[in-house]
Amino acid sequence: MSKLKFIDLFSGCGGFSEGFYQEGFESIVHVDFDAPACETVKERMRYYNYSEKLIKRAVICGDLTSEEVHNQINNVIGNTEIDVLVGGPPCQSFSSVGRAQDKNSMRNDPRNYLFRSYLEILEKHMPKIFVFENVSGLLTAKPNGNYIFPEIVKSMSEFYSVCDDRKTILLNSVHYGVPQIRKRVILIGVRKDLNIKSEDIYKAITKTHYSPEMESKNEKLGLKKYLTVKDAISDLPKLYPGEGEEEIFHKIEKKNSYLKIMRPNGSTRLFNHVARKHNDLDRERYKLLSKNDWQLKELAEVRPDLIHHDPKHFGNRYTVQTATKPGRTVVAHLYKDGNLFIHPDFKQERTFTVREAARIQSFPDDFKFVGSRTNQFKQVGNAVPPLMAKQIAKAIKQFI
Fold first, then answer.
1. In the prediction, which pLDDT does 314 show?
2. Which fold has domain 5-213+384-399?
3. How many Cα atoms sit within 13 Å of 363 on the Cβ side?
4. Which end of the chain, N or C, is less packed with Cβ atoms under 10 Å?
5. Residue partners of 96: CB distance under 8 A and separation at least 6
């Protein structure tokens, strides 16, 4: 039986693709604007034994708003029938943080309209199913004074049946075995000539774990307990700021259920586990915050000398990742500084490495990020968690 074929637009480092690879799908095209992310995608295709010739054709590094890139995509796809199109146009302009920091609420941001490039490819190649991922802020974004979400759904609905029920389309990665709270809009559309309801696909995206929220309401529904930061990273070699190497030997004897997924087939290598350098003040700050599980305002009361922000306004500027809870949403801002991702082990006096962030995002350990460390952080923060993508791929496979 031939494999189901998919294309990935705005692919980043390939988190979405990873979930589909794990479910046995075959990739035809990946498009992204960021050169190091494209190199990471190529690296992963090698891992899955794609030939160099195929990789060279399949990974298009360029701007999806340009005609040239569209022509390249057409050349690669030719007459191949595409089963699934996946992708998440960059979403900074839909995110509530982005809007808060921009005096025009991002109204003039050209990224608001990148979804049109997605639509163009969708209508040209007419895959059976599409999956469109974005931040939850998409539901309230008004880039030109009007809500953009209904406009997106309307334009997708010409040839596809799309479910726009907000409860259904907002998925949280923690339910799919990812040790992270990450709520994302996942729009699934089914070509109208197929006798499949998109609602049925959502029902098939199986939740496996309950969230802390469900726990507090005592609604565990027979699901497994959420995975925590400790489950995800406690086996990793301890590092002080500035320590670590891009590739090391790392073998662990005892694996929890999550590490069995992260380190399959007795893998012994570990990539991208390098700690940032921090100055003495930051180290002291991180140590006290994580040792006492404090926020900035509590630190300000005891050690005002360590505060260079107004703690009232920047209460969440420094955040320790709680060992016993799922991680906070991993964001691309990580590439600027890691202050939202302070390591829960106070003895390490530092913020997360790329590998720790990747574990929280559910990238397996043999997934190698390419490029500068700054860019690797960006790649991890922008990605769709592979385990969540895998559950979506699994559900789609049941119908096509």
1. 57
2. Rossmann fold (3.40.50)
3. 31
4. N
5. 137, 140
- Predicted TM-score (pTM) of this structure: 0.93
If residue 332 lies in a helix (H) or strand (E), which one and from where to where? none
Residue 265, by phi and psi: left (phi above 0), alpha (psi -120 to 50) or beta? left
CA distance 322 to 231: 11
Segments making up each domain of the chain, as ranges: 5-213+384-399, 229-382
DSSP 8-state assignment for residue 33: S
Provide the pLDDT for residue 309. 65
Tokens of 309: 């922000």
* Contact call for residues 127 and 84 (beta carbons, < 8 A): yes
Amino acid letter, 358: A
Summarised one tens digit per residue, pLDDT across range 328-356 is 999 988 999 899 999 999 999 999 999 99
Q: Are 287 and 383 a contacting pair, CB within 8 Å?
A: no
Cα 133 to Cα 115: distance, rounded to the nearest angstrom: 10
Residues 170-218: tens digit of each pLDDT: 999 999 999 999 999 999 999 999 999 999 999 999 999 999 999 999 9
Q: Which residues contact 213 (CB under 8 A, 6 or more apart)?
A: none
Pairing mode of beta strands 183-191, 170-172? antiparallel
Strand partners, 170: 185
- The DSSP symbol for 352 reads -
The CATH code for residues 229-382 is 3.90.120.10
Q: Is the pLDDT of residue 254 over 90?
A: no
The tens digit of pLDDT for each residue in 255-312 reads 899 999 999 877 889 999 999 999 999 999 999 999 999 988 899 899 998 887 665 6
DSSP 185-233: EEEEEEETTSS--HHHHHHHS---B--HHHHHTT--TTPBPPP-HHHHH
CATH topology match: 5-213+384-399 vs 229-382: no
Using CA of residue 116, residue 117, residue 118, residue 119, what is the dihedral sign?
positive
- Are 353 and 365 within 8 A, CB to CB? no
Task: Please identify every residue annotated as catalytic.
Answer: 91
